[in-house]
Please model this.
Amino acid sequence: MKIKDILILGAGATGISTAWNLRNYNSEIIIVDREIELGGLSRTLKVDGFHMDIGPHRFFTNNSSLLRVIKNLPGVRLLEVRRLTKFYIKGKYFLYPARIRDVISNLSFADILRIIYDYISGQTRQIFFLRKIENLQDYLVLKFGRSLARMNMINYSEKIWGISCSEISADWAKERINGLSALNLIKNIFNNPGHLKTLRDVFYYPDDGIGSICNGFIKDINLIKNCIIRNQTRPVRISHDGEKITRIYLEDSRQKISEINPDIVVSSIPINELLALFNPKPPDDILECLTKLRFRSTVCLFLIVDKQSVSLNQWIYFPDKEIPFARVSEPRNFSCRMSPEKMTSLIVEFFCWENDKVWLLNKHDLLNYSLSWLERLNLVKKEQIKDIFLHKERSSYPVYDLGYKIHLNKIQDYLSRYKNLYVCGRRGAFLYNNLDDALEDGIRISQNIKEYS
Model:
């Protein structure tokens, strides 16, 4: 069939990648996004000479074609950055990936023996009893032993998700840290790094922030007459006939409503928001499934610091639950262009539920909530903080609780009847993916659209 109009809802990495890969296709492409700045979770905010990603990003891909495309995008200058990451656990900083000298200096001999014993005994029990892995806690205990899992991964995971690891599906680990285990960590300690993304010592990073990648795609898209970008615009109703999307109503920043009759719809907006706009409404059982899918949100406190450097680390993770924030990053350690000379900045991240206590705090209250720990950890003192900014990001992380797969499968089965609809991206597909995965998803969708025609 002849495809005239392609509507892309959401200008995150997947939506923008889809549009870019269709830019020479003989159809009109319309990209809409509710934000002023495009790029979704992969955008970079700029304030007074400071560049700040929405949480720290690093880029890596095994796809040489994708890497070549990104290197050739306008305005993108990729740096190769040597990674320096630490975990703060029980009053001590541990390098990640681990190094032998660091482990020996931070752990007592008794701690090391306990970690080894727990791991070996757990592996032995698994060999003889073949215990079924029911949840993330089972997975982490099997792969790392109870002591090591509890010391770091269980605590940090519960901080991210806000629920017990016994309530989280093991699917999360299979997608994010598949292949990572105590054995791989030991190999890495002795300078034998594996192929796992999470253990790589070097990553790519654009010198002006991760948002440069999406901005580079957008610059190319803007050169094409058949591509239209409409920011500060959102869908307010999606009409369908039960087999295809027939009409979508859009509202712009002036509350003006327009209509589009698209041949193809690509959506990366949150899956629950998408289906809430359907007219007629989805069946009651689908709406019930939607209420069971949850997202965690993030709050980023950006601190402008009158100091040349806070540390050499790109990230520091804080699994201990008494520390209110989960991660602190220093953008200048990704690229010196992320802050003016002789000054630096920090991104202090909090994982939360939308409208919970942390979400509702203003920037001054959130700083007061965090400051005692920031000073205690020797990261920054109050008098060094020259300005603060607050950014709240809804629906940042899909929550893989124990029942999510059943509900998601029912929703996906329902959506599959709409032959001209593609749902994608972290929010749209309810899939915890990386930036390279999102960009490759755009390539796949564009190929499917071309085959559809």
Remarks:
- DSSP finds 16 helices and 20 strands in the chain.
- The chain has three domains: 5-40+207-293+400-452, 96-200, 295-398.
